[in-house]
């Protein structure tokens, strides 16, 4: 039997953007009946919020979208870097930090928005609820494109240009 595809979303604090992306991707998998084929998690490059629940605004947005899931913030580990097949960073700083600490992850680390034509997910941490909603819509669209890419439909879209 094929093993599950392992996907890890990474941001700085693991309380806003990467939980939003994890929730969006989990919802997408549920809708497609694909949950059993994937192992999905998220982590932060920083440790400040380790052990905390997600940001209340992120929680509210995920609840609005029917995408909420229980989450406890954690920091990315070397084990993650070895274990996951796809490590999807929200911004370039996250990506650089993952590769600086875990060079062995090279080739598996990308910006999530590479699947949506490029760019970074703006950090809604210092913004408001609407910024959080917009971050969700962005990561949700990128998760759809990522899944399409995995399903072999990526040739038409934009397979990630640069190697991390
Ligand atoms: P996230 O947002 O990386 O999307 O979870 C942040 C959360 C916390 C901090 C910065 C960004 N912080 O500086 O504590």
TrEMBL record:
Keywords: Hydrolase, Protein phosphatase. The active site is at residues 11, 17, 123. SMART domains: LMWPc. Pfam families: LMWPc. InterPro entries: LMW_PTPase (IPR050438), Ptyr_pPase (IPR023485), Ptyr_pPase_sf (IPR036196), Tyr_phospatase_low_mol_wt (IPR017867). Belongs to the low molecular weight phosphotyrosine protein phosphatase family. This is protein-tyrosine-phosphatase.
